[in-house]
Amino acid sequence: MNTSIALLEAHRLMAQGLSNWIRKDFEEYELLFVAESRQDLLDHLDQNQIPEILLLDDYRQEVGGLEIIQILNAQYSAIRILVYTINTTEELIDKMIRAGARGYLDKGCSQLELKQAIDTIRTKGFYYSDFLPNR
Fold this sequence. Notes:
Low-confidence stretches: none
Helix content: 40-55%
Number of helices: 5
Mean pLDDT: 88
Strand content: 15-25%
Distance between the termini: 31 Å
Shape: globular
Structural class: alpha/beta
Number of strands: 6
Order of helices and strands: EHEHEHEHEHE
Strand order of the largest sheet: 2-1-3-4-5-6
Radius of gyration: 13 Å
């Protein structure tokens, strides 16, 4: 059975590229949905579309990724969250991991690293890249 995955990405071009890539090259995954906002994500979850893994773009306009992680951990704690962002400050990374994110990637990562991160979260439950040396 395939692992379900969802994407929260505000930028349509990025969302289209990632979703097409996942559908084409990730045979062991099923893309449930792509959400453009926190409300869109919560609407999908309220309709019982609950992914095993969520790729979370932290570049949110209406609310930060940290708040979204806290909401999801309170209501949907089984979802494993992989944050990918351009904001790579150590303080924010630490807060996100402590709030319940299972992994954290710089948006400048390679396709291979993103795939490895998703695979590792699926098999081990977490992913800490070389970018997080103290984890």
